[in-house]
């Protein structure tokens, strides 16, 4: 008579087989050809996920491991995925310049799947077919966030407001809710999520990531979808729109070779959401820039002198001034270097095995360029923790400053085939915003405070306390735009 096999015994044999198979593969890889980059020893099946989950935010643990190993390239295994972190400009250039075609994909993650409506947008999808005259204290973070999103809202939907706006010409409750939803999604877009590496755990929604992202997307859809649907319906009834067009009109009007709409309604909705995801870079970096320049008034004055020389006081800074505002651009670039919005760039996924920097990078690996690791690498930068815009100039101060960094000594915008599609808009938005902030007001520490506190938030790269600073108008009253 056959003895019944207990289920726990079956599970034990399955687990033993997986461990032996994993060990055999690891041994085989260690003997053949180039090795993986150094990194912490992974656990069977789950890899380094327990350490990442225990040590939050994960970046500080990753940074500590790389310092302990004395390496600028490291490998962390999350589930079955090799995550390669790069803090070396030389290796970063080799990845994105020499092997760009093999690293053009993006990872499948819960947040990107939801925000792109099932990967229908471009940037996050895997590679595939598609105040009074005496001055006042100002909340700089809130002002910058609404300024940046107003610009994108105007470009995409040709409106500043979803409702009637505030009585003072500022944002109304609808705009405040919209801004809050955007920054909620941005915080979770590429945050560490266990189920992205162990998909069978997604049903548990650990840390409520999926619930939070869905609720925020619901807010964005509430404001975006009616405008998009109404515009598409009008186009079908009335044909081509006469007069000025916004970006939504352009997307609706695109046709394929047969004369059919190039983008479906769902694809247009996904693209419109993605266009708002670029606002975090100028808002976060400019808040840090203003804070640094208040604490270092000689830098603020140098930037103001350049603006007065190039633009004057009779009009505001505009896009055509950007090529001549090199010191202002250097201030923006220095803030992006020292205070990146995220620890890493958007991940690249290797579509085949490749050897980079002498290391074996398996197919399916996630490649992360360390924004903070590159920007603060003492092997690359002198006094890396100091805010010094002058570092980008030649001795004669004649350099023409660009925010893009082709040598990848720092990551301002993404590079390669999956480069940020909004580089021009991001550059213009950042430089014009900082230029007008400095041109319009003299910024100083609020009364009874010594210096601006530059402490970082514990789990993010924002300032721990939103920047509140004293702003005194420095232009004639007629130069400021009047909001009616």
From TrEMBL:
Family matches, as Gene3D superfamilies: Cytochrome P450
Obligatory cofactor(s): heme
Annotated residues for binding of heme: 420
InterPro entries (UniProt xref): Cyt_P450, Cyt_P450_CS, Cyt_P450_E_grp-I, Cyt_P450_sf
Keyword presence, Transmembrane helix: no
Superkingdom of the organism of origin: Eukaryota
Pfam families the UniProt entry points to: p450
A Gene Ontology molecular function term of the record: heme binding
Entry's family note: Belongs to the cytochrome P450 family.
Record protein name field: Cytochrome P450
């Amino acid at each position: 008579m056959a003895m019944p096999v207990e289920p726990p015994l079956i599970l034990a044999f399955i687990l033993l087989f997986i461990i032996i198979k994993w060990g055999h593969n690891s041994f085989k890889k260690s003997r053949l050809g180039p090795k993986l980059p150094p990194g912490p020893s992974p656990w069977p099946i789950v890899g380094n996920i327990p350490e990442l989950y225990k040590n939050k935010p994960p970046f500080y643990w990753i940074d500590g491991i790389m310092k302990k190993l004395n390496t600028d390239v490291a490998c962390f295994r999350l589930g079955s995925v090799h995550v390669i972190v790069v803090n070396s400009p030389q290796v970063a250039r080799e990845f994105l310049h020499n092997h760009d075609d093999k690293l053009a994909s993006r990872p499948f993650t819960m947040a990107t799947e939801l925000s792109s409506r099932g990967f229908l947008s471009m940037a996050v999808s895997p590679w595939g077919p598609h105040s009074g005259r005496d001055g006042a204290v100002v909340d700089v973070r809130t002002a910058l966030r609404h300024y940046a999103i107003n610009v994108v809202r105007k470009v995409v939907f040709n409106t500043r407001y979803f409702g009637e706006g505030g009585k003072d010409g500022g944002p109304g409750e609808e705009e405040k809710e919209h801004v809050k939803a955007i920054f909620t999604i941005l915080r979770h877009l590429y945050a560490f999520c266990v189920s992205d590496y162990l998909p069978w755990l997604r049903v548990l929604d650990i840390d409520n990531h999926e619930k939070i992202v869905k609720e925020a997307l619901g807010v964005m859809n509430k404001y975006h979808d009616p405008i998009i649907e109404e515009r598409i319906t009008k186009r079908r009834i009335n044909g081509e729109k006469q007069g000025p067009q916004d970006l939504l009109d352009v997307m609706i009007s695109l046709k394929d070779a047969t004369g059919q709409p190039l983008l479906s309604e769902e694809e247009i909705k996904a693209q419109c959401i993605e266009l708002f995801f670029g606002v975090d870079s100028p808002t976060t970096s400019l808040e840090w820039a203003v804070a640094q320049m208040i604490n270092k008034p000689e830098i603020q004055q140098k930037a103001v002198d350049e603006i007065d020389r190039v633009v004057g006081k009779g009009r505001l800074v505009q896009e055509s001034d950007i090529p001549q505002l090199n010191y202002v651009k250097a201030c923006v670039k220095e803030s992006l270097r020292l205070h990146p919005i995220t620890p890493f760039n958007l991940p690249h996924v290797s579509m085949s095995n490749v050897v980079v920097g002498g290391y074996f990078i398996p197919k399916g690996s996630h490649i992360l360029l360390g924004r903070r690791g590159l920007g603060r690498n003492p092997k690359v930068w002198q006094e890396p923790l100091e805010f010094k815009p002058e570092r980008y100039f030649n001795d004669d101060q004649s350099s023409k400053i660009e925010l893009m960094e082709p040598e990848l000594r720092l990551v301002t915008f993404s590079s390669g085939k999956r480069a940020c599609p909004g580089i021009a808009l991001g550059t213009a938005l950042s430089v014009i915003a900082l230029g007008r902030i400095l041109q319009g007001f003299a910024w100083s520490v609020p009364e009874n405070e010594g210096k601006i506190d530059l402490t970082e938030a514990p789990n993010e790269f924002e300032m721990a306390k939103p920047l509140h600073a004293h702003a005194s108008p420095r232009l004639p009253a007629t130069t400021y735009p009047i909001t009616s």
